[in-house]
Amino acid sequence: MLLDTASLYFRAYFGVPDSVRAPDGTPVNAVRGLLDFIGRLVHDHRPDDLVACWDADWRPQWRVDLIPSYKAHRVAAETGAGLPDEEETPDTLAPQVPVIAEVLDALGIARVGVAGYEADDVIGTLTGRAEGPVDIVTGDRDLYQLVDDARQVRVLYPLKGVGTLQMTDEAWLREKYGVDGSGYVDLALLRGDPSDGLPGVPGIGEKTAAKLLDAFGDLAGIMAAVDDPAAKLTPSQRKRLDEARAYVAVAPTVVRVAGDVPLPEFDPALPAAPRDPAALDALAARWGLGGALQRLLTVLHP
To answer: What is the reported pTM?
Structure first.
């Protein structure tokens, strides 16, 4: 089980009242909410391995070099926690991120981030290396590209907390978007994504993109059709795709998650016992983690 950790602690932050605070009054709603999320996921799914994938770099330069607008609408400054200091990021969330990291480390839950890469890239690399089934837990649709029924890779997309999850497999993707996992990258880059600063191809929305992919197979097939006067494209589609060649040439590299991240050595197995009990006790006392931490420990060490 691979956790898109930032996606989950954002959801925890907004799903748990900020009245949940440490003894000194500091909000710890994201910390405690995430611990409860992990406890519920482990209880319900009993994974053999669990990895909290981390955004060591939320806006890698190599992606920005290809598409300068990539996440450019966000404030460029980063906090020391590796969290983008965006306009929409509440001030009370950023200080909780290092606490989350310390608690996960003390628990012994593998936490993996690599300089120059996003958590999505860590997830993509781990998924590619996996020898058995993989469940990816994320609220980010970008990771639908990794869904692969043959390899038993699916995305668990939280609908309400993590108790209600959308089990995303290839059948669901085809019904919803008309593509399978491997086709999702082409759909996403054609459609664009304002939240990531991806412009897409003007005039090509999700439904049109799906129809073009159905007709021509993949992005390369669509662009070949632009050069084929006999291909069944409307004049406006042909014009817009032709004008978007520069974007289409680089967008796949930006949208596709990396599969070759140089990962550090780590143990993905569920911890048989806390890695650092003393540190965990100190964190629990300082931040008032109480029930949420105990519930997780009970699930991890029944």
So the answer is: 0.92
